[in-house]
Structure formats: C-alpha cells, structure tokens
Specification:
By secondary structure, the protein is mainly alpha-helical. It folds into 2 domains: about 15-80, Winged helix-like DNA-binding domain superfamily/Winged helix DNA-binding domain (Arc Repressor Mutant, subunit A, Orthogonal Bundle); about 85-230, Four Helix Bundle (Hemerythrin (Met), subunit A), CATH 1.20.120. About 65% of the residues lie in helices and about 5% in strands. The chain contains 11 helices and 2 strands. It has helices spanning about 15-30, 45-50, 55-65, 85-95, 100-120, 125-135, 145-160, 165-175, 180-185, 190-205, 210-230; strands at about 70-75, 75-80. A two-stranded antiparallel ribbon has the order 1-2. Strand 1 and strand 2 form a beta hairpin. Helix 2 (about 45-50) crosses helix 3, helix 7 runs antiparallel to helix 8 and helix 10 (about 190-205) packs antiparallel against helix 11. This is GntR family transcriptional repressor for pyruvate dehydrogenase complex. Pfam families: FCD (PF07729), GntR (PF00392). Keywords: DNA-binding, Pyruvate, Transcription, Transcription regulation.
C-alpha cells in the first residue's frame, strides 16, 4: 500500500492519532520515500495531507525528533536525518564477521531479553503502533518464509523501541546468521502459532511498561523457539 495514501483512523483519541501519524511518517522515512537530507512538508501541508489537526502533526513530529529521525529548526523546516553513524559502523563490522550460528543464537539469548526490558521502559506511542501493526499482519497461516520475515520485523521494531541505535544493527546480524533456525521454528502451523503467542506476550508487557515481565516473556519466547527448532523435533 502506498504510505502517502494512508491516513490515521479519525476515530482515535488525539494522543493515539498523533502516535498513528508518527508511525506512518516513520514507515515512510525508513522505506526511503523521504531520504535523509530532504525536508518534510510543512505542518500545514502534513495536516491537510493526512486530515489531522496541526497539534496532532506537532505531536507526531515530536516523536520522530525523539527517535532522531528528523531535526526541526526554526525558519529552516524539518529535515530528515540519516541513521546514527555508530550503528552504521557496527553493522559494517558485523557484516564482516564470519558466520557462526551457535554464537548468533547465544547473542540473541543474552541481548534480546534486555532489549525487551528497555523497550518496556522507553517505547514511544508510535513504537507501540508499529509493533501492534506488525502482529496484526501476521498469522500462523502464512507460509514459513513470510512468517519468518514478519518475525524478524517484530524483533527489529522492538530493538528500535529500545532507543539504543546499536541494538537494531545487532538484531540484523543475528537474523542473518540464524535464518535456518528461524525457518525451522516456523515450519508448521503449530510452531508459527507458538512464536506468535510469544510475540503477543512480549508486546503486552512492553505496552503496559512492565520491564521485568517483558524481559521474562522474551527469555521464555527464545527458549521455546530454540527448543522447537532443534533438529529431530
């Protein structure tokens, strides 16, 4: 769907409407439709384009600014920013690392529960919108390859919600190194249902801001996924 044609649900509360708009704009920026260095339309233009008030636009822009996706300067407009250089440097370093599935799985078990804990503490409303949408567009009835793609997207969105720009790069690396194991954990309807249930438990803990519950839910999810993807099961 063309993101420029989407509009937030007008029946939402004002605070939710701003989060929905922030999610739409973030998706557009990350998809490259609004490249780094370009200017976003004015508040008035965004208000007219998406059918919302200028107060809602300002709320959405504040969230994008908090995520370091844009910079607002008086009299100069709103500029789209590129990814933090440290994250890009880390991604390059990890890309050059020889693949070792066992190490990547261990990395996930160490890092991802902490990502979930941080996300519960730091996620912005627009992060919750994107995570919820990611779950709404997945199902145990998807084919294994598409289910894995949605799985990777959910974990990557969670890493972004941690507000630490290094963690999404780590998750991209781990996803690339564990593709086979992930596919095994999504091979059957029952396995896909198990994975989806784990994601729902994680999101609920993040949504309610329960950091320890989010950490525990992620730890349980990864343990379960590792078990069902073990050869012979």
């Amino acid at each position: 769907m063309d993101i420029t044609a989407e509009r937030p649900d007008q029946g939402l509360a004002p605070s939710r409407l701003g989060a929905e708009l922030a999610g739409l704009l973030e998706t557009r920026i990350r998809a490259g439709e609004q490249p780094a260095g370009t200017l976003l339309p004015s508040e008035r233009a965004l208000s007219e384009q998406y059918g919302v008030s200028r107060a809602t636009v300002r709320q959405a822009l504040s969230e994008l600014e908090a995520k370091h996706l844009i910079a607002r300067r008086q009299g100069r407009g709103t500029t789209v920013l590129g990814p933090p250089s440290e994250a890009a440097d880390l991604a390059s370093l990890l890309a050059a690392t020889p693949p070792e599935v066992r190490n990547a799985i261990e990395l996930r078990r160490i890092v991802e529960p902490e990502i979930a804990r941080l996300a519960a503490q730091r996620a912005l409303p627009s992060d919750l919108v994107l995570l919820r949408r990611a779950l709404e567009t997945t199902s145990e009835h998807l084919d294994p390859e598409e289910s894995v793609r949605r799985d990777v997207e959910f974990h990557h969105l969670l890493a972004r919600a941690s507000r630490n720009p290094l963690l999404p790069a780590l998750m991209e690396f781990a996803a690339a190194q564990t593709e086979g194991e992930r596919l095994a954990s999504h091979r059957t309807v029952d396995r896909r249902r198990t994975s989806l249930a784990g994601h729902r438990a994680i999101l609920e803990a993040v949504r309610t801001g329960d950091a320890e519950a989010a950490r525990a839910a992620m730890d349980a999810h990864l343990a379960e996924v590792q078990e069902i993807s073990t050869p012979g099961r």
